[in-house]
UniProtKB/TrEMBL annotation, chain A:
Organism: Holdemania massiliensis
GO BP: any one term: DNA-templated transcription initiation
Residue ranges occupied by any RNA polymerase sigma factor 70 region 4 type domain in the UniProt entry: 121-172
InterPro entries per record: RNA_pol_sigma70_r4_t2, RNA_pol_sigma_r3/r4-like, WH-like_DNA-bd_sf
MF terms in GO: DNA binding; sigma factor activity
UniProt-recorded name of the protein: Sigma-70 family RNA polymerase sigma factor
From TrEMBL, chain B:
Pfam families: HTH_16
Positions of the Helix-turn-helix conjugative transposon-like domain: 14-78
Protein name: Helix-turn-helix domain-containing protein
Source organism (scientific name): Holdemania massiliensis
Origin: domain of life: Bacteria
Length: 183, 80
């Protein structure tokens, strides 16, 4: 006997029966499907319902898990943006603060339909000392941000008149407040 | 640990699933109850108190959010 034959004999004898030539189809068995079948033909409606039960279970769990993930992501995003009130920096605190205004703290100047409140006593006194039309023009120009043309329309004057009176009032105001007139 | 019968019967019966997908309130409630445990686990958060000791609690806001999402999602489930 040649050594080759001995090996062959040994090799064949050690194999489990029928290990070759079989296709493993699923965990339920290794049988080949009968010819002409695709599989699943023997599945009863019960099996379909069972499949749907499992599918529904998996579906719900996935939905919940993904939604929980979304929720936690939202929470962590909020936490990264949120700052405790006590840890706010000074300047952003100032934005939140509101100061009470009392009528004796400011002087009010009615101009047309608007009322302008001026807190600075020195400025208010000087404005009071100005003639009426010059004061109105100044207030409209500086506090209501109106252009000369708009002021002219409201006061029934020519635009140039408004300009001239504004400059005159401005110079006078400067003088009253002790500023350098030509500055 | 011996699992209770309800734990073993982990799957909802098919008729209830079908009814829930159609949007029947009783069936939807059954589904919500069935998954309430999982929802509670998912919405459990751990926080630390002033001494740094961890304690976990169920975030009610998150729990309601998950329940709402589940109700909406059930209606979209494809039964066929």
């Amino acid at each position: 006997m040649s050594s080759k034959n001995v090996f062959l004999k040994f090799f064949q004898g050690n194999q489990p029966k029928g290990a070759f030539g079989r296709r493993v189809v699923g965990e339920r068995g290794s049988n080949d499907l009968p010819p002409g079948k695709k599989g699943g033909e023997t599945m009863t409606p019960d099996r379909h319902y069972e499949h749907k039960q499992h599918a529904f279970d998996s579906f719900c769990k996935k939905v919940l898990k993904c939604e929980a993930y979304n929720g936690y992501r939202e929470i962590s995003r909020r936490q990264s943006r949120e700052v405790a009130f006590s840890e706010l920096p000074e300047d952003s605190m100032e934005q939140l603060a509101s100061y009470d205004r009392y009528p004796w703290e400011y002087t009010s100047f009615p101009v047309g339909g608007d009322v302008i409140l001026i807190e600075d006593d020195r400025l208010a006194e000087a404005l009071n000392a100005l003639p009426q039309d010059g004061r109105d023009i100044l207030l409209m120009y500086f506090f209501l941000d109106m252009a000369d043309r708009e002021i002219a329309k409201r006061m029934n004057m020519a635009r140039r008149t408004v300009n001239a009176r504004r400059q005159k009032a401005y110079r006078l105001l400067k003088e009253l407040m002790g500023g350098d007139v030509d500055g | 640990m011996v699992k209770s019968a309800s734990t073993w019967a982990a799957l909802l019966p098919y008729p209830i699933i079908a009814a829930a997908v159609r949007g029947e309130p009783d069936a939807v409630n059954t589904v919500i109850r069935h998954y309430s445990g999982y929802i509670a686990v998912l919405s459990t958060r751990t926080s630390y108190d002033v001494h740094g000791c961890p304690y976990s609690y169920v975030d009610e806001e998150l729990r309601r959010r998950l329940e709402t999402k589940l109700i909406i999602a059930i209606l979209d489930f494809d039964l066929n």
